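Forwarding the complex inputs:
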Amino acid sequence: SQQGEEDPQALSIQEGENATMNCSYKTSINNLQWYRQNSGRGLVHLILIRSNEREKHSGRLRVTLDTSKKSSSLLITASRAADTASYFCATAGPRSGGDAGNKLTFGGGTRVLVKP
Amino acid sequence: EADIYQTPRYLVIGTGKKITLECSQTMGHDKMYWYQQDPGMELHLIHYSYGVNSTEKGDLSSESTVSRIRTEHFPLTLESARPSHTSQYLCASSSLGYGYTFGSGTRLTVV
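Prediction (whole assembly, two chains):
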């Protein structure tokens, strides 16, 4: 069963707009990560946020984590056509110990279409 | 520029054939993983390894097997391919403190 579930499943926006997608998970985590996947390709790691962090930024990306609600959000500001992709959240459970080397459980992804 | 390489990129094969999907990484990562992904769907972990001579089955039951004889190499083998094995197979590696690095995937079609 899925640990992470993204919402919405699909998102269509105009270039320049912001895109927000959410991820909910079920069990305690060590960290949560976001990945991007262009059609038919492998995934690219975007950002990692640990369970004791609440917000993290990387360029045009902003990630928040609310462990009390078991949820995270990814915001892409000033979107570009090149941001068109599927975005996945993935969680690493605490029982394996350590950091991002834990095996990850992925959600179903949000498909984002940025129209020029 | 990928530091983790998967071959072949695409493979169409007949039912009953034995196949090996190759995965190699040049980063010296001790942890490696195989995920299976149907188009537009979530990824499912089928195998992982935390080091040489260490392999474990993942959360999704798979008829495939893996080996880890060298740090950089983590091949996946299907002894007898079936149409139900048609999917995309993604290999990844990681090191403590960082996210995964994924290969470009192998899209397998069994006819």
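Chain B touches chain A at residues 2, 6, 30-31, 33, 35, 40-45, 48, 50, 58-59, 88, 90, 92, 94-105, 107 (CB under 8 Å).
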